Amino acid sequence: MIVVHAAVPIDPDRREEALERVRALAEQSRAEDGVVDYRATTDVDDPNVVRFFERYEDRPALDAHGETDHYREWVEALPDILGGDVDDVEVTQFAVTDAFDPNATGESQAGGGSATGSTEPE
Questions:
Q1: What is the pTM of this model?
Q2: How far apart are CA 87 and CA 29, in angstroms?
Q3: Minimum mean pLDDT range among 36-45, 70-79, 82-91, 99-108
Q4: DSSP strand E in the chain: where?
Q5: Quick check: helix, strand or coil at residue 39?
Q6: CA-wise closest residue to 8 among 56, 79, 70, 94
Q7: Cα separations (Å) of 21 from 17, 87, 100, 117, 121?
Q8: Is residue 38 packed enough to be buried (19+ CB in 10 Å), middle (13-18) or exposed (0-12)?
Q9: Would you tell me which of 18, 20, 50, 72 could form a disulfide with 81, CB atoms 3.0–4.6 Å apart?
């Protein structure tokens, strides 16, 4: 599984437009094959930062997401809605080999699950 976390600062003057684009991106992304989950929310400390939490079955699913029309439209719109430079967008990817719900009954909470993190752009 690939997990992605991104923090995107948005221009306060373009906030409503940015949030509309975020909603559309998240909805369309959740419908993609290989997308386990795709969520976006505003930061509780800074409402002009949108945080994305994305889970993909594997690297090919993440790569396919980057080739979709809705993702490309999002990337093209970024310079107009960012509250800063494209370099201000923080993206971290994790390759997860073992994941479990610690609240689920019967799940092992111990063990050798691992994740490797990267701050490379999507």
A1: 0.81
A2: 23
A3: 99-108
A4: 2-9, 35-42, 49-56, 90-96, 115-118
A5: strand
A6: 79
A7: 6, 20, 31, 27, 20
A8: buried
A9: 18
- Tokens standing for 8? 């995107």
Edge-first strand order for the sheet with 90-96 is 35-42, 49-56, 2-9, 90-96, 115-118
Taking the CA atoms of 60, 104, 40 and 96 in sequence, report the sign of the dihedral they define: negative
Q: Give 118: exposed, middle or buried? Use CB within 10 Å, 0-12, 13-18, 19+.
A: exposed
Average pLDDT over residues 114-119: 49
pLDDT band at 121 (very low <50, low <70, confident <90, very high): very low
Determine the Cα–Cα distance for residues 89 and 112; give it in Å rounded to an integer.
31
Task: Tell me: pLDDT of 72 over 90.
Answer: yes
